[in-house]
Each structure stands twice: as C-alpha cells, then as structure tokens.
Write a structure and sequence with these properties.
heterodimer; A: about 325 residues; Rossmann fold; 2 domains; seven-stranded mixed β-sheet; five-stranded mixed β-sheet; B: about 325 residues; five-stranded parallel β-sheet; two-stranded antiparallel sheet; 11 helices
Chain lengths: ~325, ~325
C-alpha cells in the first residue's frame, strides 16, 4: 500500500469527491492559490478553478452562513475553517441554522455541507489557536462530528462526510498534517458510527479519538511490557457514536480510560464515561476514568503547554493504577 | 404609479388580494392567540403587506426568499396556502413543517421560501448562499433576503453583503424599516444613513415607500430583472410600519410609541386602502367588488382556521424524526 501524508490524503479525498460530483465546492480563507497555511489544499485550484475553490474574505460567520444557504439549494460546500478556535465566530450559523434546518422544516430542507477544521495543542500557538472544540458541536443535535486519527482515517471519513446529506464537522489534528500512513490506491470510504478496535486486549479499554489514539497505542505498548493487555479503540465519529462497540469492550475488560484532547469537564470523556456507566456498570472492576485536556486556556510556554494534554506516560501510569487496584 | 394603467388591473387585483390575505391571516392569528388556541407567541406582519407582496410579485416560484420572525407575510406573498400555514401555527401534523417549526420557522421550499428565521439577521447568510448556489449551478434564480431595521445591527449582514458585492451575486437585500427593533426606535439603534451601509460595498441602493405596493412592485420588477441578468446585488430600504406590537403580547406600547403615530400610519398610509383608493378613483374597480374579494378571503381563512383547529397533532413518534436527513447516496 502507498504511504502518503495526512495532507495528501485529505487533498485526495477532496479531489476525488469534486471529480465525482460537480456540486461539491470548497470555500474558505486562502484555500485557492495559498492552499491554506497548512498547504493541505495545494493544487486543487489548478484542477478545479476558482469557481469551485473559492477564496473568501476573513468573515467566518459570513462564509459558513453562505455555505448553509448554498447547501440548502443544491450545492455541496466544503468549508475550510482555518483554525478550530474560529468556530466560536460561526456558531450561530452552524448550531442555529445548519443543524436545525432539517428538523425545523419537518424534513423538507437539508444541509449537505462539511466544515473541515482542526484541533490540538502543543504547537506553541497559545490559547486562541490550540483548542479542541469538538464537544461544542457534538452537543447540538443535527450535526455529525468526525475526528480522524491517521491519513487513512482522514481520507475515508472525509469522503463519507462529503457524501452525507447532513452538516458534518471534521476536526483534524493540526500536528498530524505531515504524518505518513498507508492509504489504498483504490476508492474507499469509512462509515460513520463504526468505532475501530485497533488493538485487542483483555485488562483495560483505552478509548480515544484523533491524536489521542496514537497516545493510547504507545501506552498500550508500554503496558504490554508491564504484562497488562490493553484494548485500544478509535472512536472515529463522536456523533454518531458507536456505543455498542465501546460497551462490549468494557464488558470484556472491566476497565476503561477515555482519552481526549478537549477539556475534561463536560467533555466527550464525560459523556462516554456516563454511557459506559449506564450500560456496563455491573461489569466494572475499576472506576471509569476520564483523561481530557486540563481545564485551563492553553498556555504559550512549552513547559506549561505540555502539561495540559494527556500523554502516553500519563495514560500508562493511570492504567497501571486501575489494573493493579492502586486506585482504590 | 404612472406606469400602472387599467390593463394592469389583473395584476393590481392579484396584489390587492394577497395583501388582504396577509391582513386577514394575521387577524386570525391574533384571535387564535387571544383565545389561547395557539401555543406560544407570534409576530404580526399587518401594515407591512405591500413590502412582501410588491417584491414577490416579480419573483418566480423557483426564485428564493429568506424570511424573518415576522414572516407570515413573506410566506403568503411567495404563494403559500392558508391551511398548512394555520396548521403549522397550531403545531399540527399537516403544517408546512409538520408542526416542528411553528410561526417563526415556516418554510415552504416548493414555493422557494427557505424559511422564516428566529435569529434577527440570521438568514442573511442563507440568502446569500442561495444566490451563490444559483450562480454556481448556472441557474437564473434570484434570491430576496427580507430583514428588518433591527438586523442592521448584526455583523453577519455586512460580511455577506461584502461577499455578494465581490462576487456579483443575484441577491436583493430588502430592509423593511418598520422603525422599531423590538421595543426601540431605529434612530436609537442605527447610526448614520442606513442606505449608505450597502453603498459602502458598492451595492446600488434604493429607497421606496413601503406602503405603496405599486411603487414597491415597480422598483422590484426592475431590480429583479437586472439581478436575473447578473446585475446584482441590490439593496432596498423600504419605509413601512408594523401595526401591532413586537409580538401579539406586546399590547401596551405607549412607553415606546404614541397612539397618534399608530393612527397616522393606519389611517393615512395603509397599503391596502391606498391601493383600493387608486383603483377606485380611476374607476377600474368598485368598493363593492373589493369588499367581495375581502369576504371571500375571510371565508377561506375561517375555513382554514376551523380545519387547523380540528386537525390532528403529530404522533409522538415524530419527535425523533428529521433530526438528520435520510441519506440519498
């Protein structure tokens, strides 16, 4: 299988879908000749022209709102939101307009649009360019939320998002754009709502999304050396959530740590822990444990910033405590 | 007005009929509220009929509009039927949105109405996007974005007007200045020349008497035709007045506007009376004929209200439906 970067995989997904469907177009800040600051979209304007790769003014609410109207009337926009933090500027358009059109109209209107944005700290970008805000949109019925973890996932989930008739927000870890991974030559998509068991195990379930999947894989390798068998599950889509796979895993292992880069309080770690508590309580051998980002704005100083996000060592230590009973 | 003559009578009568239909609809909606038959509140369009009717007169059913929380008038002007509208106001299954939207979210996509919107200025993005999509798809559809003077305070409007101007989008921004954003006069909320806000983007802007349906129609006809040929966007500031309060429950209004002011607009500038007087003084029609039109519409509205009152509510199973669109791919 070919090895390509995350950026390349995203670029391929968009190009393939734009070739497949003339109604698909891209818009956002510096998406055309600049190809975004991360260069993810380079080359698309050369193939598809400025009619379908549209540079917008720096007006996040405006161009997201414009995309909602375009989606309601037959087009299929992919909006590039340069940083996940800017989602706050667009929330009325995403949450009050895009998410609710189908329901408010009794199913007559639909909004087939994708908002592609990013998440993740430790890029030394400080408090307004480092947040992981997927919880905000996951809270709003009517939206779907995908968090790919590898180039393969990024391509497959994005293609599914583009074909979905509903508004989908895709969060990519901004430190992953140069990550290389295996991506098939042939066409594929990844269905929403199907969590991926990356590594089977018996003693503890490590449940994560986005770059926290790699954190959990590293932790699982460390745990193996300590004689602890960890099961690693990539959630893939927060909405819809594949609750069955997560519940089945925890019923088997009796323990779980849910790891996420969003703030821990009121975050998806809390939601997943609560659901596992409701559905797998009588199978538990240890408290369901959340590891989210610290509840502080992301600090600039590297020394401080690195303390705010879950690490493999932290997950390993917590897992050892839970399995050994030291957490009692 | 000079451009309308007796040969335009069918068109004038159509507009007259639509304006009366809106007025009668609102009178019934008010009655449903007062008699506690309607859940929640509603915002009435009475007084502003010439705006929606005059502009929609030049639109095809495939053209789009976006509407506001005060949206019944736009909905009727774009061709909606009274029965499913009253059903929607009462939360019934046969409503335009199966009772899920209510007064503030009525959408009638078959007639190009992309929906009322309960966020002030909230549909400016949708309207501009519909215009973008029309151009992108190679269609000659025109979009009219209705909003009130209150929406002039929202940043979104300026973000999308900028894009509409940059990309020459086929959209007409119709600002219905009814002089009050909720309970506050426009002069306390909007600085400077309102029209100049659009002109700053290089958008051609017009002012028109929003109580004169012939003037609105005439301007609308010319701007819609120019927009259809790629000449857009445009901005229209329509001077109008809402007869009722901000919503049906806003009855004691003396603290923000005088009874004399209300009387002046109702007696001197009523859009329905103005058009009737014009047609009668030219001897194109008679008061008797116009009274017959009103009686017919009142009977239609009464039948629609009776139907809606006895129509079934949606079944409880529907509460979880339509959160997501069924997939076509």
């Amino acid at each position: 299988m070919k090895q390509i970067t995350w950026s390349h995989a995203v670029n391929e997904a968009i190009a393939e879908e734009m070739r497949r469907d003339d109604m698909v177009f891209l818009l956002g800040e510096d998406v055309a000749e600049a190809g975004t600051p991360f260069k993810v979209l380079s080359g698309l304007v050369e193939e598809f022209g400025v009619k379908r790769v549209v540079d917008t003014p720096i007006s996040e609410a405006g161009f997201v709102g414009l995309a909602v109207g375009a989606a309601m009337t037959g087009a299929r926009p992919i909006v590039d939101l340069m940083f996940g933090d800017f989602i706050f500027l667009t929330l009325d358009q995403i949450a009050n307009q895009a998410a609710k059109q189908c329901y408010m109209s009794g199913g007559k209107l639909k909004v087939p649009m994708v908002v592609r944005t990013n998440m993740g700290a430790t890029r030394r970008s400080a408090a307004q360019h480092s947040q992981s805000l997927h919880t905000l949109v996951a809270h709003i019925p009517g939206l779907k939320v995908a968090l790919p973890s590898t180039p393969y996932e990024a391509k497959g989930l994005l293609k599914t998002a583009i074909r979905d008739d509903n508004p989908v927000v895709v969060f990519e870890d901004k430190l992953s754009y140069q990550m290389k991974g295996e991506v098939p030559e042939e066409e594929y998509t990844i269905p929403f709502g199907s969590a991926n068991i990356l590594r089977p195990g018996n003693d503890i379930s490590l449940i994560a999304a986005s770059s926290m999947v790699q954190v959990c894989e590293t932790a699982a390798a460390q745990l193996e050396a300590l004689g602890i068998s960890a099961e690693v599950i990539d959630i893939r889509t927060v909405v819809p959530l594949d609750e069955d796979t997560l519940v089945a895993s925890v019923k088997k292992t009796g323990r779980a740590i849910i790891v996420d880069e969003g703030h821990q309080s009121y975050g998806i770690t809390s939601e997943i822990a609560a659901r596992l508590g409701e559905k797998a309580f009588y199978y538990l051998d240890a408290p369901l444990t959340r590891m989210g980002a610290m509840d502080v704005p992301v600090p600039f100083s590297p020394v401080l910033e690195d303390l705010t996000v879950p690490t493999a060592d932290g997950v390993t230590a917590k897992a050892v405590d839970l399995v050994s009973g030291a957490a009692r | 007005m000079a451009t309308f003559n007796q040969s335009d009578l069918p068109r004038l009568l159509r507009m007259y009929r639509r304006m009366v239909k809106i007025r009668v609809f609102e009178d019934n909606a008010n009655e449903l509220y007062l008699s506690a038959k309607m859940p929640g509140l509603t915002h009435m369009y009475s007084g502003q009929e010439a705006v929606a009717v005059g502009l929609c007169e030049s639109l095809k059913s495939s053209d789009h509009i976006t509407s506001t929380h005060r949206g019944h008038g736009h909905c009727i002007a774009k061709g909606a039927q009274l029965k499913p509208m009253f059903c929607e106001l009462l939360g019934k299954a046969e409503g335009y949105c199966r009772g899920k939207g209510g007064s503030m979210h009525i959408a009638d996509q078959d007639n190009g109405n992309l929906g009322a919107n309960a966020i002030v200025g909230g549909s400016a993005g949708i309207a501009t996007g519909a215009a973008f999509s029309a151009k992108f798809r190679g269609s000659d559809q025109v979009t009219v974005c209705f909003f009130g003077d209150g929406a002039l305070g929202q940043g979104l409007l300026y973000e999308v007007m900028n894009m509409a101007a940059l990309w020459s989008l086929p959209v007409i921004y119709a600002c219905e200045n009814n002089h009050y954003g909720e309970y506050t006069h426009v002069s306390e909320m909007a600085a400077g020349d309102l029209k100049a806000r659009a002109e700053a983007f290089g958008i051609e802007a017009h002012t028109v008497d929003g109580q004169d349906v012939m003037a609105v129609c005439q301007l609308g006809e010319s701007l819609v035709a120019r927009t259809r040929k790629g000449g857009g966007p445009f901005f229209i500031l329509l001077d109008t007045y809402r007869y009722h309060g901000h919503h049906v429950g806003d009855v004691n209004r003396a603290y923000y506007r005088s009874k004399d002011e209300e009387k002046h607009w109702k007696n001197e500038r009523d859009p329905i009376i103005k058009l009737a007087e014009h047609m009668i003084s030219n001897k194109w029609t008679t008061q008797t004929q116009l009274d017959a039109v009103a009686s017919e519409i009142k009977a239609e509205a009464k039948a629609a209200v009776d139907y809606a009152i006895s129509a079934p509510y949606p079944s409880g199973d529907e509460v979880g439906m339509h959160v997501y669109a069924a997939m076509q791919n």
